[in-house]
Write a structure and sequence with these properties.
alpha/beta; six-stranded mixed beta sheet; globular; binds adenosine-5'-diphosphate; binds magnesium ion; transport; nucleotide-binding; ABC transporter ATP-binding protein; ATP binding
Length: 238
Amino acid sequence: MGRITLENVQKRFGEVEVIPPLNLTIEDGEFVVFVGPSGCGKSTLLRLIAGLEDVSGGEIRIDGRPATDLPPAKRGLAMVFQSYALYPHMSVRKNIAFPLKMAGMDQAEQDRRIAKAAEALNLTDYLDRRPGQLSGGQRQRVAIGRAIVREPAAFLFDEPLSNLDAALRVGMRMEISELHTTLATTMIYVTHDQVEAMTMADKIVVLRAGNIEQVGTPLDLYREPRNVFVAGFIGSPK
Ligand code: ADP
Ligand code: MG
């Protein structure tokens, strides 16, 4: 499960309306990319869904249940942070286990989930290493592993590859896409990179100043951009 609906969701910081009321449905299992220039509200929108920010108005539903007032830990979603959010003094195993330990899960179930995540991410041979002994790509996979073990209804990524070099970024893009195929779980992925959006998304949400300019498949947006902003941003010939 992982259907997320936003109904008239809005966000103000003081007097400034960063997200005017917007409506959006994310279907179960979809790979949705929020794309738009820096400062357009991508992170804010993701953080509203995650519960890391409170909405100023509107309703968020996850699998039909009202989630607007739930704290992040009760929403069943997992935010993937950049790899530098790992604990440097803990082994890979302990980094991945951390959210499960916090939740008080029994050891056998923790071990089962860690083994499964490590296999999906090709980290089985690295579980006893520390983050400092891993490559950038492996560290990013550990950060994803920490999300996978929680078996969330959806994964939320906020520019997870922006601190990796260009070559690594291309590889990780493919890995995340493969992971989406393997897990068949909803993923919401924030980026300002059009190429990432066009190559990874089932559905792209183009944002400008907190407004949704267009929602569609990469092909829809390329062929039928609704306006000059979308065309320019997506790199459409129109
Ligand atoms: P993006 O992720 O697309 O770059 P953000 O969601 O981070 O954009 O920011 C959208 C706008 O909201 C920006 O103008 C930013 O300055 C503002 N903003 C974000 N967080 C806060 C905050 N905690 N307080 C005040 N303004 C904020
Ligand atoms: Mg951002």
